[in-house]
Amino acid sequence: MLVCHHLSYLDVLVLASLTPTVFVAKREVKHWPVFGWFASLAGTLFIDRERRTHVRQLTQEIRDVLKRGALVVLFPEGTSSDGKTVLPFKSSLLELAAGQIHPLFAGWIQYELEDGDLGEEVCYWKDMIFFPLLINLLSKRTVLAAVRFTQLREGGRDRKQLARRLRLEVLRLKESVAI
Q1: Which residues of 88-98 are buried (b: 16+ CB within 10 A; e: fewer)?
Q2: CA distances, 156 to each of 15, 16, 166, 167 (Å)
Q3: Which of 8, 13, 34, 22 is nearest to 123 (CA)?
Q4: What share of the chain is helix, strand, coil (3-state, %, to 5)?
Q5: 111 secondary structure, DSSP code
Q6: Quick check: 30 and 46 in contact, CB under 8 A?
Q7: How far apart are CA 154 and CA 44, in angstroms?
Q8: Which of 75, 88, 128, 176 lies most in the core, judged by the most C-beta atoms within 10 Å?
Q9: Count of CB atoms situated within 10 Å of the CB of 47
């Protein structure tokens, strides 16, 4: 399982380009034009954040995917940001990770533009409108991405404590990345 901060729709493309991956996304993504269809085809697991009881069902689905040997990626911030900070991690989907049955990794993704403002032209956050952001991004000559991972040797049994620890690991990775 990989736990990573979330900046942009590019995160999914970058991580999926490195290894076969199953992502966990909010239910709303399933209904997004084009991308919802792609996400469904790719095997994304969708969480209904309005129904707390859905977490138990999704945890079982994640367990099944991990048993098959696939990498499951969680973005526990619950939303994306401009990349200047890492938002607090929500712990609801970390119960399985707290059991430390499967390897657990923290990940950091960073982007760099030759020209432009990363927070406004790569990161997808606030009330941004997707298609103008995409068109602008496609006009860029180069977008560089750096990815770093670290394995947690000891997870801890408490999911809230684990969420804090994973966030600290992501912040530590942030300090060590240079594109």
Answers
A1: ebbbbbbbbbb
A2: 26, 28, 11, 14
A3: 8
A4: 40, 20, 40
A5: E
A6: yes
A7: 27
A8: 75
A9: 23
Both tokens of 145, joined, read 């991405």
Contact assessment for residue 108 and residue 170, using Cβ atoms and an 8 Å cutoff: yes
Q: Are 80 and 109 in contact (CB under 8 A)?
A: no
- The pTM assigned to this predicted structure is 0.89
For the beta carbon of residue 162, count every other beta carbon within 10 angstroms. Answer: 25
- Give the torsion through C-alpha atoms of 85, 90, 96, 97, to 10 deg: 20
* 106: its two tokens: 């923290």
Q: What is the pLDDT of residues 120-174, one digit of tens each?
A: 888 887 787 878 888 888 889 899 999 999 999 876 778 999 999 999 999 999 9
Looking up tokens 């999926």 gives 16
Residue 62 token pair = 């994640």
